[in-house]
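Progress note, sequence design subtask.
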């Protein structure tokens, strides 16, 4: 499935609406680290994100150590950032 990449302007607008997220150095993904009180809360967050990801058919790349979750969003089918990344990031922020 071919999905359109965001334009430079759309990327800037997206990041302006997503404080805490930053653009990866190659410009093809956005990243954010989440920190929770303990592992159980971090894993509960990941479980909630997993349900969102399935609903949106759009999945994060992530790494968890104890209470920290490092998350990267990119659209593999687009080879970079797409509206799907913005939509998922906004839904994730709404969980906090
Ligand atoms: C067939 C394809 O794997 C699906 O359309 C979805 C699954 N989840 C996905 N997640 C992400 N991050 N990028 C994708 O391109 C993607 N594609």
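Output:
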């Amino acid at each position: 499935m071919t999905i359109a990449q965001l334009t430079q302007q759309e990327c800037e607008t997206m990041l302006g609406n997503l404080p805490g997220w930053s653009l990866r150095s190659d410009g093809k993904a956005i990243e954010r680290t989440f920190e929770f009180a303990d592992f159980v809360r971090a894993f509960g967050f990941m479980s909630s994100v997993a349900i969102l990801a399935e609903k949106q058919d759009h999945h994060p790349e992530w790494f968890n150590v104890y209470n920290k979750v490092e998350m990267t969003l990119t659209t593999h089918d687009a080879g970079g950032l797409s509206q799907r990344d913005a939509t998922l990031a906004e839904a994730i922020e709404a969980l906090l």
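Residues 1, 57-59, 74-77 surround H2B (CB under 6 Å). Work on this subtask will continue into the next period as scheduled.
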